[in-house]
Amino acid sequence: MAAFTVLRRAAELFVGALMALMFLTFILQITIRYTARLGWMADALPILDPTSYGWTLEFCLLLWVWIIFAGCAFVVRDEDHVTFDVLYNHVRPGIRRWFLIVGGLIIAGALAASILPTWDKFHILRLKQTATLKQLVGDWVRMRDVYSVYMLFLIAVSLRYAWVVWNAVQDGVPEGHHGSGRPDE
Asked: Which of 183, 126, 124, 147 lies closest to 61, judged by CA?
């Protein structure tokens, strides 16, 4: 379990760094937007030339995609999700166990089944370049790279729900377990 804790902490730090980078890029966008109105500013400080910052919007979108999928795959816990567990909380533990098994199988199966079609689409995306990120990092970044975090998401969440199913089959529903993952209060 210690390895999972270290990996979880690393994922939290990674996603937090992405959020900080997105915030700094947003501040840069605001700075450039308001200094662009001052024509003399770009002449005095060429680094503030607004034509050099078209990449910031696409970079923020890239960061947002990575934050969402990496965060959901590796940081957000089951108990952090909104759940509709009224029915789940009012049935016997044996029925809860089947809810966990069937629900977990559906989620894990659907996500796992979409891995190969997604991989096929990534084969096509290797040809497409981003519109403006080449100003920042060169022309080697492809759309495949931008969306590659989605493949990690599919694999990680499939495995997570397969683990939920395994635990439910092996151990049943833990005493006091609710759909939200909270123990009885």
From this structure: 147
Q: How many residues does the chain have?
A: 185
Give the Cα separation of 8 and 167 in Å (integer).
20
Listed by start position, the domains of the chain span 1-76, 82-185
Cα 145–chain centre separation: 14
pLDDT in tens, 98-154: 999 999 999 999 999 999 999 998 888 888 888 888 877 777 888 888 899 999 999
Reduce the DSSP state of residue 171 to 3 states and report it: helix
Q: What region, left, alpha or beta, does residue 132 occupy, with left being phi > 0 and alpha being psi -120 to 50 degrees?
A: alpha
Cα gap 100→77, rounded to integer Å? 16
**Tokens 């990449």 — which residue?**
55
